Design the sequence.
């Protein structure tokens, strides 16, 4: 989670789904909640990475800790 205040933050994280683990990249900006990406992978574990270039945050996931999507 990257947190500025209660109305401005982003979260990259898991949720359990019937097809495996659902990974979602969600954020709230100026009190508006948005889901940027949400997808499922048939996996029991994974790795997450958030990068920031300028003012742009990007979320990545990997099933092996080497190759990130």
Sequence:
């Amino acid at each position: 989670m990257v947190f500025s205040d209660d109305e401005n933050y982003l979260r990259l994280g898991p949720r359990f789904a019937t097809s495996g683990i659902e990974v979602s990249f969600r954020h709230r900006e100026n009190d508006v909640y948005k889901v940027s990406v949400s997808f499922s992978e048939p996996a029991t574990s994974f790795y997450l990475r958030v990068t920031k270039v300028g003012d742009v945050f990007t979320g990545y996931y990997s099933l092996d800790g080497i190759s990130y999507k």
In short: The two ends are 18 Å apart (CA to CA). The chain is about 0% helix and 70% strand.
